[in-house]
Recover the amino acids of this structure.
C-alpha cells in the first residue's frame, strides 16, 4: 500500500506523452495515407467507382472479372504472367549475383573498398535516369550492347522492343527463343544488385573465422567451405532478400513505366501488375477493378511470403541455434 | 537548464515559424496577384511546351492586352496525364477556368456534365454558327450527342512523307495506291536480306490502324446503332495488310527497326536520317524537314528533297483519308470565369472578328486552323505559299474522310485497345479479327459500365 505522503502517480507519464507527441506525425500519416486507403480500397473493390461519381456497390463483379481475365487470357492474366516471369527470373538472379559479388569482394583483393563502392553506386542512381540510360544501351539499332554483340559476331536481340521470353522453356524448342523486353527489365534490375550485395557483405563479416579454420583442418577445399560454411550462414540474409525481392518484383513500376511508353509496350509484354493497376485506376478510371486487383495482388504476395516463411525452417540457419 | 515546458514551447514556436516561412515564401504567393485591378482572372491549363509554349504565351499576352475585363493566367502542363490532373482538380472542387488538351476525353466529361457545352457559354445561335464555321473533322472532334462540348483550336493530320531522292534512285514515283506503296517497300528493302536493314521502304505503325482502317474504307463505330464496329471487314483488312509487313520482314526485325521512331525529333526524324523512303507522319514534321533543308543550304550541301502525298488507299478505299485528332478547349463546370474562358477561346480560334489574329497565330505555331475561313485569310495563305509541304496537310483538313476517334465515353480506352490489338497482330502474330474482336469486347464492357455509372 503506498504511503499517504508519496506523490500520486500521474495517469499518463510525461515520457508517454512525449512519446505520443513524437509519434503523432507518423501515426497521423499512417492512418491517413495507409490505414484509410487500405480500408477504402477494400470497399471500392466491391464497387463500380470512376473517381468522379460516388462508388456503387456491385458485389463481387470486379473479382469475377479478374477471374475471367485470368482464365481466358485477358489483361489481368497477361499482367500476372509477366509479373511472375519477371519475379521468377529477377529474384534468383539478383540473389545469386549479389552473393557472388559479396563473396568476391569480401576476400583480400586490392582496391576492395573502391570496387565495393563501384558495384554499390548503381543502386543509388535515380530509377528514371537509370531506365533512360538502359533504353539507350539496349536500343536494338543503335545501342551499345548490340554493337558489342555484333563485334563478336552475335546477333543483337530486340530487347525492349521484343515480346520474346528467353527463360520460357517451350520457346527453346519452338524456334521462338530470344531475349525480349522482360529479360531486358531483369537485366536492368540486376544493375542495382548493390543493395543485396551490401547485405550479404554484412552477413559474411558475421561468419565466425573459426568455422573456416575448422573446415580447413578437416581438409575442406574452397568450394566445400563456401557450400558448407558460408552459404548456410548466409541463409538468413538470403531469406530476407528473397522476401524483399518478391515484393519489389510485384511493385516494380517506375522503370516499367519509362521503358514501356507507359502502356506495357510492346504488345503488353511489359504490362506488369503495378502498371496494369495504375492504368486501370488512373487512365481508365476503373478504381473498383483496380482496387480488387490490388487486393488480389496483396493476397498473392502474402501467400508467397507465408510459403517462404514456412519453408524457411528447412533451409535458413541461424548462428547459435540448434539445427 | 531550460524547463521541459519552455522547451516544448520553444519547439512548437520553431515549427510554427517554419510553417509560416514556407507559407510566405515568394514562390508560394498566388499567381492571382499578377491580375490587374478590375480584371477577372481566367486560369488556363494547357499542354504546350517548347517553342509552341512561347507562341501560346504570345497569344495570351495579346489577348490580355486587348482586354479590359478578363485576364488569362496560363499554366503550362506539358507531358503525360493532364487528363488525370484535370479530373483531380474537378474532384477536389478547384478546376481551372479553361483547359486545352488533346486526349479524347470530351465525351466522358460531357456525359458526366463536368464541362459546359458551347450553347451554355454562348447563345444557341452562336453555337450553331460556330459548328458550321468549323472544318467537318473539327466539328466531329468536338460533338457529342449532337451538341458541341469542346472547341477545337488546331488539327493534327497525317499523310505519307517520301524521300524524293530515294524514289529517283529506285526509279519510282510517289505512291498513289496501296499496291504502289507495297512495291516501293519491297524494292527498297528486299525481305531476303539478313540482319537489320539500313533503310526500309515503308513500315506500318501499329498506332496508325486508326488511319489505315479509315483509308481501307472501314469504320470503327456506327453512330446510328451506337455500336463499335472494330471487326468491320475493312478494318480487319487494314490490320491484315499491316501484319503482312511483320510476316514479310519478321516481327522482331520490324519492332527493332521501328524502335523509338515516334519519339525521334529534329534531325533524328527517321526520314531525315535516311532510314525510310516513305513514312507516315503529321504536319509537325514539316518544320523539322525545313530546318534540315536550311541547315544543308547553310553548309553548302544540296538540300534533301521530300514530298507529301495523302495516304495511298487500296482498291475501294477512301482518298484523302486518315485519322485526325487535335487540341480542344474544354470549359469545366464550376470554373470561376466561364465567360472569360469563352472570350479567350473566341480570340484564339478566330471568332468574333479575330480571324486575322487567329491566322497569324496558326502561322506562328505551324498549326492547322480549325476553320476554312481562317485558312483563307491572306495572313495564312502567304504562310502556305512559303511552306508547300504544310499546304498539303491543310488541303486534307477539309476532307470528309478525315475521321477522329469516335466521340463516345471511354474513347481513350477504345483508342488504346485498338492500338493494343494492332500490336498483338503485328508483334505476337495474333489473327487480326480475333485481336479486334477481343478489343471490341473489352471496350463494350467498359462502355456498359460507364453507361451504368450513377
Amino acid at each position: 500500500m503506498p504511503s499517504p505522503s508519496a506523490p500520486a502517480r500521474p495517469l499518463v507519464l510525461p515520457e508517454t506523452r512525449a512519446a505520443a507527441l513524437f509519434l503523432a506525425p507518423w501515426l497521423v500519416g499512417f492512418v491517413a495515407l495507409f490505414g484509410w486507403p487500405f480500408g477504402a480500397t477494400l470497399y471500392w473493390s466491391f464497387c463500380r467507382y470512376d473517381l468522379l461519381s460516388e462508388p456503387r456497390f456491385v458485389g463481387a463483379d470486379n473479382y469475377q472479372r479478374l477471374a475471367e481475365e485470368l482464365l481466358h487470357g485477358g489483361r489481368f492474366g497477361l499482367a500476372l504472367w509477366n509479373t511472375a516471369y519477371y519475379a521468377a527470373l529477377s529474384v534468383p538472379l539478383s540473389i545469386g549475383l549479389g552473393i557472388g559479388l559479396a563473396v568476391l569482394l569480401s576476400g583480400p583483393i586490392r582496391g576492395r573498398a573502391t570496387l565495393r563502392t563501384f558495384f554499390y553506386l548503381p543502386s543509388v542512381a535515380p530509377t528514371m535516369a537509370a531506365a533512360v540510360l538502359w533504353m539507350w544501351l539496349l536500343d536494338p539499332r543503335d545501342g551499345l550492347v548490340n554493337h558489342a554483340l555484333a563485334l563478336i559476331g552475335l546477333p543483337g536481340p530486340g530487347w525492349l522492343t521484343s515480346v520474346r521470353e528467353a527463360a520460357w522453356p517451350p520457346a527453346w524448342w519452338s524456334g521462338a527463343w530470344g531475349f525480349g523486353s522482360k529479360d531486358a527489365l531483369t537485366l536492368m534490375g540486376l544493375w542495382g544488385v548493390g543493395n543485396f550485395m551490401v547485405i550479404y557483405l554484412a552477413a559474411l563479416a558475421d561468419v565466425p573465422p573459426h568455422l573456416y579454420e575448422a573446415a580447413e583442418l578437416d581438409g575442406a577445399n574452397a568450394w566445400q567451405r563456401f557450400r558448407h560454411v558460408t552459404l548456410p550462414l548466409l541463409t538468413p540474409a538470403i531469406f530476407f532478400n528473397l522476401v524483399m525481392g518478391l515484393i519489389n518484383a510485384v511493385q516494380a513500376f517506375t522503370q516499367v513505366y519509362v521503358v514501356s511508353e507507359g502502356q506495357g509496350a510492346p504488345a503488353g509484354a511489359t504490362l506488369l501488375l503495378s502498371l496494369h493497376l495504375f492504368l486501370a485506376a488512373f487512365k481508365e478510371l476503373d478504381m473498383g477493378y483496380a482496387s480488387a486487383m490490388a487486393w488480389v495482388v496483396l493476397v498473392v504476395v502474402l501467400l508467397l511470403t507465408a510459403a517462404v516463411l514456412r519453408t524457411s525452417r528447412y533451409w535458413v540457419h541461424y548462428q547459435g541455434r540448434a539445427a | 537548464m531550460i524547463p521541459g515546458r519552455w522547451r516544448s514551447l520553444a519547439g512548437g514556436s520553431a515549427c510554427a515559424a517554419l510553417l509560416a516561412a514556407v507559407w510566405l515564401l515568394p514562390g508560394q504567393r498566388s499567381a492571382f496577384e499578377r491580375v490587374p485591378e478590375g480584371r477577372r482572372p481566367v486560369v488556363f491549363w494547357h499542354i504546350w511546351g517548347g517553342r509552341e509554349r512561347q507562341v501560346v504565351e504570345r497569344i495570351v499576352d495579346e489577348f490580355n492586352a486587348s482586354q479590359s475585363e478578363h485576364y488569362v493566367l496560363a499554366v503550362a502542363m506539358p507531358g503525360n496525364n493532364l487528363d488525370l490532373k484535370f479530373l483531380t482538380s474537378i474532384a477536389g472542387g478547384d478546376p481551372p477556368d479553361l483547359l486545352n488538351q488533346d486526349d479524347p476525353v470530351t465525351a466522358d466529361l460531357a456525359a458526366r456534365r463536368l464541362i459546359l457545352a458551347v450553347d451554355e457559354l454562348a447563345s444557341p445561335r452562336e453555337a450553331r454558327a460556330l459548328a458550321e464555321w468549323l472544318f467537318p473533322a473539327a466539328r466531329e472532334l468536338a460533338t457529342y450527342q449532337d451538341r458541341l462540348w469542346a472547341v477545337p483550336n488546331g488539327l493534327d493530320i497525317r499523310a505519307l512523307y517520301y524521300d524524293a531522292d530515294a524514289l529517283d534512285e529506285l526509279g519510282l514515283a510517289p505512291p498513289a495506291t496501296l499496291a504502289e506503296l507495297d512495291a516501293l517497300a519491297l524494292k527498297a528493302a528486299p525481305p531476303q536480306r539478313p540482319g537489320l536493314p539500313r533503310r526500309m521502304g515503308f513500315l506500318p505503325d501499329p498506332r496508325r490502324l486508326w488511319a489505315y482502317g479509315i483509308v481501307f474504307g472501314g469504320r470503327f463505330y456506327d453512330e446510328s446503332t451506337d455500336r463499335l464496329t472494330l471487326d468491320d471487314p475493312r478494318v480487319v483488312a487494314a490490320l491484315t495488310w499491316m501484319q503482312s509487313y511483320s510476316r514479310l520482314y519478321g516481327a522482331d526485325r520490324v519492332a527493332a527497326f521501328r524502335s523509338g521512331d515516334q519519339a525521334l525529333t529534329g534531325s533524328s526524324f527517321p526520314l531525315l536520317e535516311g532510314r525510310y523512303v516513305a513514312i507516315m507522319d503529321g504536319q509537325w514534321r514539316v518544320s523539322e524537314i525545313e530546318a534540315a533543308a536550311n541547315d544543308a543550304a547553310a553548309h553548302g550541301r544540296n538540300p534533301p528533297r521530300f514530298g507529301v502525298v495523302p495516304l495511298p488507299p487500296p482498291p475501294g478505299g477512301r482518298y484523302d483519308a486518315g485519322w485526325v485528332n487535335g487540341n480542344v478547349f474544354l470549359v469545366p463546370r464550376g470554373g470561376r470565369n466561364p465567360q472569360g474562358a469563352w472570350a479567350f477561346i473566341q480570340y484564339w480560334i478566330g471568332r468574333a472578328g479575330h480571324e486575322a489574329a487567329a491566322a497569324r497565330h496558326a502561322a506562328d505555331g505551324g498549326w492547322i486552323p480549325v476553320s476554312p475561313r481562317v485558312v483563307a485569310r491572306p495572313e495564312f495563305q502567304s504562310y502556305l505559299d512559303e511552306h508547300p509541304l504544310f499546304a498539303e496537310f491543310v488541303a486534307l483538313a477539309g476532307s470528309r474522310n478525315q475521321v477522329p476517334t469516335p466521340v463516345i465515353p471511354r474513347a481513350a480506352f477504345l483508342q488504346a485497345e485498338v492500338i493494343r490489338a494492332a500490336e498483338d497482330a503485328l508483334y505476337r502474330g495474333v489473327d487480326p479479327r480475333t485481336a479486334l474482336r477481343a478489343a471490341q469486347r473489352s471496350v463494350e464492357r467498359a462502355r456498359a459500365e460507364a453507361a451504368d455509372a450513377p
Remarks:
- Chain B touches chain A through 38 residues (CB under 8 Å).
